[in-house]
Amino acid sequence: MQNKIRAYEGLQWRSGQVQTVLDALTIEHPLSIYINQEIFSLTMQTPGDELMLACGMLFTEGVYRTPEIPTFRMVSENRFDHIDQIWFNIPTEQLNREVLTKRTMLSSSSCGICGTTELPIVEGHLDAHHEFTPERVWEAMQSMAQIQNAYLTSGGCHGAAAFDTNGKLLSMGEDIGRHNAVDKTIGSLLFSDQLTSARLLTVSGRVSYEIVYKCFAAGIPHLAAVSAPSSLAVDYCKELGIRLYGFCRENRMTRYA
């Protein structure tokens, strides 16, 4: 937890009173990802599970599409011991060079497709083979919320979690970026060899195109969010066969696709 949160002093105004407070804030730290000695991305993220984040990102963006984890080394060059760099060695024949050439270096914590020069072409259709009841979706959302420790401490961290058909929690990730939390969750599924068991992905914020794209790339046919989806997210879910649930809170939800 200490790795994700840092205390900052501030002045708080409340009910006409001013007092000094010490607030726990979510850390945002740059992570450089290299592939075969060349920079792939500089990603703003929350420390912790950096390797899960990087592997999830490379997999969902189609840089490599094998479930095996590439060889790597991690570098820390700061006084907080946060990971600054991850260097991957990936055989050339396993790389999607087209994807690599369509990304520039910077990806912010608020946007997973920032840094790409164009939206990737997505083709295919997922078959759900299973329907989740509203009760099961609410249970999954509550399960995720209960273990969002960084959010519960700071109020400034997103969460994502993956569940199987029985509602069993398979993996969970937290990050200041919505898409980073999803990448950490999917990266964890890769490490535990449970990617094919994941049938429901829950996210703590809104759903944009980038979240749908990552969900589809991971082969997860159900996507549920605390907040609203964007129009493009709904359009793509309808096209790709993803069941999309929005506003999953307070015993209500809306299925859009």
Description:
With 257 residues, this protein is an alpha/beta fold. It folds into 2 domains: 29-107, Ubiquitin-like (UB roll), CATH 3.10.20; 134-255, 3-Layer(aba) Sandwich (Cytidine Deaminase, domain 2), CATH 3.40.140.10. 26% of the residues lie in helices and 31% in strands. It contains 7 helices and 13 strands. Strands 9-8-10-11-12-13 form a 6-stranded mixed beta sheet, with helices on both faces. β12 (243-249) and β13 form a beta hairpin. The longest helix has 14 residues, at 178-191. It is globular.
Per CATH, the superfamily of the largest domain is: Cytidine Deaminase, domain 2
The helix-strand sequence is EEEEHEEHEHHEEHEHEHEE
Dominant shape? globular
What integer value in Å does the Rg equal? Answer: 18 Å
Largest sheet: 6 strands, mixed
Number of helices: 7
Structural class: alpha/beta
**CATH C-level class of the largest domain:** Alpha Beta
* C-alpha termini separation: 36 Å
Task: Estimate nothing, just give the exact number of structural domains.
Answer: 2
Which second-level CATH architecture of the largest domain applies? 3-Layer(aba) Sandwich
Query: Considering DSSP H and I runs of 4 or more, what fraction of the residues is helical?
Result: 25-40%
In round numbers, the mean pLDDT is: 88
Strand order of the largest sheet: 9-8-10-11-12-13
Strand content: 25-35%
Beta-strand segment tally: 13
Low-confidence regions: none
CATH topology name of the largest domain, in short, is Cytidine Deaminase, domain 2
